[in-house]
Write a structure and sequence with these properties.
Number of domains: 3
Largest sheet: 6 strands, mixed
Number of helices: 28
Radius of gyration: 28 Å
Bound molecules: guanosine-5'-triphosphate, magnesium ion
Oligomer: single chain
Length: 646
Amino acid sequence: MKERPIKVVLVGSPNVGKSAIFNYLTGSYVAVSNYPGTTVDISTGFFGNGNRRFEIIDTPGIYSLIPLTEEEKVTRMFLTSAVPDVVVHVVDTKNIRRMLIVTLQLLEAGLPVILTLNIMDEARDMGMLIDIELLEKLLAIPVVATSIFHKSSLASLKRSICNYRPGRPIVLQYDEKLEQAIDLIAGNFSLDYGLSKRMAVLLLLQGDPITVFAAQQEKNWPAIADSLKQLSDKTQRNLEAAVALNRQVIVDRILSKVIRYANCKPHSKQKLAEWLGKLTRQAITGIPILCLVLYFGLYQFVGRFGAGYLVDYLNNSVFVPVINPVVEQLVNTSVPWEWAKSLLVGEYGVFTMGFRYAMAIVLPIVGTFFLAFAVLEDSGYLPRLAMLVDNVFRYFGLNGRAVIPITLGLGCGTMAVMVTRTLESKRERLLATFLLALTIPCSAQLGVVLALLSQHPIAVIVWSIYMLIIFVSVGWLSAKLVPGSRSSFYMEIPPLRVPLISNVIKKAYTRMSWYFMEILPVFIVTSLVLWAGQLSGALTTMISWLEPAMLLIGLPPEMAQVFLLGFFRRDYGAAGLYDLVAAGKLTEIQLIVAAVAITLFVPCVAQFAVMIKERGIYITTAMIGLIIGIAFASAGLVHQILMLFL
Ligand SMILES: Nc1nc2c(ncn2[C@@H]2O[C@H](COP(=O)(O)OP(=O)(O)OP(=O)(O)O)[C@@H](O)[C@H]2O)c(=O)[nH]1
Ligand SMILES: [Mg+2]
């Protein structure tokens, strides 16, 4: 029988380099970014050593074993159910004082830990010197110092994993009252919590909801609940704070023995990063910086270069004059059946429409967006933007944390809905999902809209202001209507870093391949459906049903087809709009109205599927109903307003 692989789980706080280490160990690629909360789900990879196989598991970041957000819950549940052979606890060495507390929690839970002091390069630049051998001795576990810039340090981590032998379990001594409390509760515990019994008791004392739920299944639960109540009544002590304080004392005692600071001045590079970082966070300088980022990143690079120049070139100089005629000729001479010809190269042909839309219109736009976004992610700008907009987002029932899913939504709404997991409450996840589905255009839509409108600068301004008004009013109204309050904002601000070109390219490439694996089949199937619809006459009937709605909001009847395409994918609809404008079918006013309607209109099939998975079918259906209503009403309204003024 084949031996099962050795299970190695990478855990640690967000943004400490777990995914970067995962990529090194497995040779595969998962996203690495300079903000907390990049990884929201478990990823698995492998490496071999001799005849042994190691299964490496990357997890979402956790601040403690007690989860606050959905993605922290994923890691906690995984740690207690997966029975890992090795747990690599990755910490950012600069913040070791805070992070070592989690190392202690993992050790107390009885897990087989290797401590990895990562981002050692930045710690050394700060003058931090750590006695690794002594730390190993004090914790009785292997400790490895690593930096992703020093491959040899990562190779030592790999060796440490391969040579790992479980050591003796560690028992931390707390103050007397806490020890008595632990003994009192432990006597009544009989179930398996997936962690050491002592850790389960400590988690219960700290009010961890997962342990409380599990302990309620104990037959002695009434006695346990009674003891807990007595403990907090009698001692007037906040048990959670008492446990945390005790652990911090232990950590400080250890660190006082192992850390020294060399006398060194900050580099001018560090000073510049700090100064720039401050500018991005203060409203007076931060807002102009945001405008510059949007102008150059989104408007110039994605809108004008990607969606304007590249799309124009690929579509008008490569596909239409060169590739399409060659394929058409090939099909016309080698395929005898008319129906097959129209299926491949007809008006809705799999090649002439499906493949061309994907390659010549969507690819350059999505590609440029993912490149620009990867640079932003790796620089550490996004958490600073989160701080900047926190005050505004409170009116939408969200906090600054929502900036990451919302800005990612400008790339791909499907990915963004998945990333709403990083938000703390159900209400925030719901509000963000709705705003994403209604008001945030994905990069393909945005690119096409910007490229088309950029011929008329006034149109860009009108469209942007109108979309902003809708975002603000819908956000404000839905926050008023959905009961609950927003959670407080806490986000660690990582240092500003110069993006690593290799990571930017790899990440943009990985996202693009994911995107294409997802859209190409949909594009092809959509062409198939449209072709069948055209052949059977169903398409003409449906378009004729939609035409009155188009006329109602002031659009030409041909727009009905674009909306129909938009049902399948937003970007497909946007690409259809591109064709319509190229044929000179829209006036300036109609272009703005169409841009508004297309932006607000239903999310694509893939986003729809993820919404159902994350929010459930009822909520998603209700959202879609609302979106259709709001999209048409807003488009109609903007048409009326423009007719009055222009
Ligand atoms: N200077 C320096 N930067 C590092 C090092 N390791 C990782 N980074 C950077 O730290 C940031 C976070 O890396 P990730 O691998 O995404 O961190 P993570 O722990 O997976 O983060 P989450 O998925 O959010 O939990 C990225 O910008 C990396 O380039 C290191 O050793 N030195
Ligand atoms: Mg990660």
